[in-house]
Specification:
With 191 residues, the protein is α/β, with parallel strands linked by helices. The protein has helices at 35-38, 42-54, 62-68, 109-120, 131-138; strands at residues 3-10, 14-16, 55-61, 85-88, 102-105, 124-127, 144-150, 158-159, 171-178, 183-189. The longest helix is centred in the N-terminal third of the chain and has 13 residues, at 42-54.
Length: 191
C-alpha cells in the first residue's frame, strides 16, 4: 500500500493564495491552481482517472476540513466524494458534515495514516493539504509525492514545504507529464 500526497502548487511553492478561508478555499487569487482540473487535457484526464481508481482513503488536516466541507466545496462528501477521510485534529467538531465520510483522529498523523491504511486495503492512501504531508514526510510515512506544478507565481499563501525542518528529504523523480496548464511531477521518497 502506498501513501501519496498529490497537490497543485504554484511555481513559487504555494498550494493556496493568501487569506484562504471557507469563502475562498484556494485563497485570494489561488483559483488558477485548479484550472487544469476544470479543463483537463487528455494527459490530465488520464492521470486523474488513475488517481481516482486507485484511491482508498484520505488523511487531511482540520484546516482543509473546515474550509471545504459541506456547502463550501465538497457537498455531502469529501475531496474525493465518498472516499473515507481521516481528519487530524486536536478537537472533534460538534457538528460533523458527512459523518459517513469523515473520521476525526485526535492522536496524531501516525494513527490517522494507520487507520486510513486499514480502510484502504490495497488501494492508495492520499494525503491532502499542506500540513499533513509535511507531518508524514517528517515521520517517514510518505512513499510518493506528486506535484501538479502550475505556471503561476502567487507571491503569498500556504506553502507546501514550509515546515519540514532542517533535515533534507531526498526524492527520486519517477514521472513527468506535460500538459498545457500544468506539469505533473511524480517522486518517490528515498529512505
Amino acid at each position: 500500500m502506498t501513501v501519496i500526497s498529490a497537490m497543485s502548487m504554484s511555481l513559487d511553492g504555494f498550494v493556496t493564495g493568501p487569506d484562504d478561508s471557507r469563502e475562498h478555499p484556494l485563497g485570494i487569487g489561488g483559483e488558477p491552481l485548479h484550472a487544469w482540473l476544470a479543463e483537463p487535457s487528455e494527459q490530465d484526464a488520464e492521470l486523474l482517472g488513475e488517481m481516482a481508481a486507485g484511491g482508498g482513503a484520505i488523511v487531511m488536516g482540520r484546516r482543509s476540513y473546515d474550509s471545504c466541507e459541506g456547502d463550501a466545496a465538497w457537498g455531502d462528501g469529501g475531496p474525493a466524494g465518498k472516499t473515507p477521510c481521516f481528519v487530524v485534529t486536536h478537537r472533534v467538531p460538534e457538528k460533523v458534515g458527512a459523518p459517513d465520510v469523515f473520521t476525526f483522529v485526535t492522536d496524531g498523523v501516525e494513527n490517522a495514516i494507520a487507520q486510513a491504511k486499514a480502510v484502504a486495503g490495497e488501494k492508495v492512501v492520499g494525503l491532502h493539504g499542506a500540513s499533513v504531508p509535511q507531518q508524514a514526510l517528517k515521520a517517514g510515512l510518505m512513499d510518493e509525492l506528486i506535484v501538479h506544478l502550475v505556471p503561476i507565481l502567487l507571491g503569498d499563501g500556504v506553502r507546501l514545504f514550509d515546515l519540514l525542518g532542517a533535515a533534507p528529504v531526498r526524492l527520486e523523480r519517477t514521472q513527468v507529464i506535460e500538459s498545457p496548464l500544468v506539469t505533473h511531477l511524480r517522486f518517490r521518497v528515498v529512505r
